[in-house]
Amino acid sequence: MAQEDVFKKIVSHCKEYGFVFPSSDIYDGLGAVYDYGQNGVELKNNIKEYWWKSMVLLHENIVGIDSAIFMHPTIWKASGHVDAFNDPLIDNRDSKKRYRADVLIEDQMAKYDEKIEKEVAKARKRFGESFDEAQYMATSPRVLEIKQKRDALHTRYADAMQGPDLDALKQIIIDEEIVDPISGTKNWTDVRQFNLMFSTEMGASADSSSKIYLRPETAQGIFVNYLNVQKTGRMKVPFGIAQIGKAFRNEIVARQFIFRMREFEQMEMQFFVKPGTELDWFPKWKATRMAWHQALGFGEENYRFHDHDKLAHYANAATDIEFRMPFGFKEVEGIHSRTNFDLSQHEKFSGRSIKYFDPQTNESYTPYVIETSIGVDRMFLSIMCHSYEEEKLENGETRTVLRLPAALAPVKLAVMPLVKKDGLPEKAREIIDSLKFHFNCQYDEKDTIGKRYRRQDAIGTPYCVTVDYDSLKDNTVTLRFRDTMEQERVSISELNNIIEDKVSIASLLKKLQK
Ligand code: ATP
């Protein structure tokens, strides 16, 4: 199946099984805004819990906060967002559609990459066993030609984005003969800057002084509180502050479902370090965060770092953790060494000293910051993409199964009476009543057992138990495992022992301690 079709299936699966709905669905939705349903919210909460505990529980020197979405408008002046949080946009006069100029160019680069991949795949087929990819890449005239075009484009693009130079971006689009995917024409307007922050007014008077913004990132709430936390928590540098919360960006092009939303959620941690030590901490956080992703067991080959060659003016190192989505490797998390830019700016704009006093050396300084910033929704999407499978069974049937890590699954155990009578429902409810304090259980008595198993497979429930007539006599049930579909007879009193450990967030956290 083409990757595009797989992705479409995942999107409709999310809706059909109560994971993600378009927002305001009965009014035909609202662009790039989504709601999480009964299963989605559980999965999302589990992702957040995994992240939060990995930061706050596993690190003595990291604490959390929950700052307000509304903040003093000068904060966004100080952070640079009012002046520079822009995307370059371009319109196609024929389709009347709006695009991000940088995305059009990046897509063009991806096309060159695809061409190279195709050439390599063809050659692999042709040469079979004896194929040497590295040698082919280095010598094939066709590949070299495409690669040269791609690299030239990359250099031009990186130069144009410095500043950015809007005319140069437009010229690239013209020279590369990029066409609008909808109208198929090259009838482009000039490139303009567009600020991504949503604004609104606070209070009754609507003069310009009351204009405030919906935060485009949660990080600034951490920066402006860093000294409050440091003092009240008696924190010593190095220390970190973690936060999970909503962020808002008026994205020009909303694409790929919950990958790019206008209202989304971030999990950010700012780690405050002594100036000069930041480049020692940066690789440590890269490794720590990669381990967090890989503990989910999706396979190392599905992640990669993408180091930035073009750094923001305030950063001295930056990388993305990318995950292999059905539409290619995409950023799910950014790790940035942000120097002391933000704290210094807030010091300047607020007129307050927010320096840290180091009791050991008796000196005051503005700490440097390593930031780890991950989108909850993108993480959610990567998990759904990796877990979704249409599995061909031996009997010729196909089952749709979500192979979610058990600790993240919305429902951990489904309890099913074989029939709706003779005391079996009561027995099933008894089991739920004894286990519901430990993990999320679901009662299901409708349809055949086979259909009920399929329903649970589709939402990723790792365990099901069936209560039958023998259960009434000997207090045993059939335990069925989602991944293998194997079944085992076990005693009801054993269920908690068998399941609790495997479905707990602690089971994931323990992997990080190794
Ligand atoms: P992109 O280049 O994809 O726009 P970004 O580099 O602007 O992302 P950051 O500002 O570094 O992203 O934000 C950190 C994380 O927040 C991203 O890695 C991503 O997971 C998430 N994120 C950012 N923008 C969005 C969005 N519009 N929708 C969903 N998640 C987002």
TrEMBL record:
Recorded GO MF terms: glycine-tRNA ligase activity
Catalytic activity entry: tRNA(Gly) + glycine + ATP = glycyl-tRNA(Gly) + AMP + diphosphate
Keywords assigned by UniProt, alphabetized: Aminoacyl-tRNA synthetase, ATP-binding, Cytoplasm, Ligase, Nucleotide-binding, Protein biosynthesis
Location, primary (coarse class): cytoplasm
UniProt-annotated location(s): Cytoplasm
Positions with a binding annotation for ATP: 249-251, 259-264, 331-332, 375-378
Coiled coil: none
Role noted for this protein: Catalyzes the attachment of glycine to tRNA(Gly).
Protein name, per record: Glycine--tRNA ligase
